[in-house]
Design a protein that fits this description.
Helix 2 runs parallel beside helix 3. This protein has 3 helices and 4 strands, in the order βαβαβαβ. It has one domain: Response regulator (Rossmann fold, 3-Layer(aba) Sandwich), CATH 3.40.50. The chain starts with 5 loop residues before the first strand and ends with a strand. Strand 1, helix 1 and strand 2 form a beta-alpha-beta unit. 36% of the residues lie in helices and 24% in strands. It has 84 residues and is α/β, with parallel strands linked by helices. The model has no long low-confidence stretch (mean pLDDT 94). The longest helix is centred in the first third of the chain and has 11 residues.
Length: 84
């Protein structure tokens, strides 16, 4: 059995976060975070192959999260979402 890629979904809106989780969990191992700070904690525990993040988050924004995640040894694919 091949390993499913791990995707970290970072979204402060609960309904959007859970909707993305439902849509992606069949093909990916999903991790969830509701803020940039929480996402970094999750990444410390479990590396992700992909980070799917909202741009506008409370506290740390999505761009800062991506910059900090890419500063580590792992190099996940990063995708930013925005409702604008």
């Amino acid at each position: 059995m091949t390993r499913r890629p791990t995707i970290l979904i970072v979204e402060d809106e609960k309904n959007t976060r859970e909707g993305l989780d439902r849509a992606l969990r069949r093909n990916y191992q999903t991790l969830l975070a509701d803020s940039g700070e929480r996402a970094l904690q999750v990444l410390d525990e479990t590396p992700a192959d992909i980070i799917l993040s909202d741009l506008r988050l409370p506290g740390m924004d999505g761009l800062t999260l991506i910059k900090r995640a890419l500063a580590n040894d792992s190099q996940p694919i990063c995708i930013l979402l925005t409702a604008y």
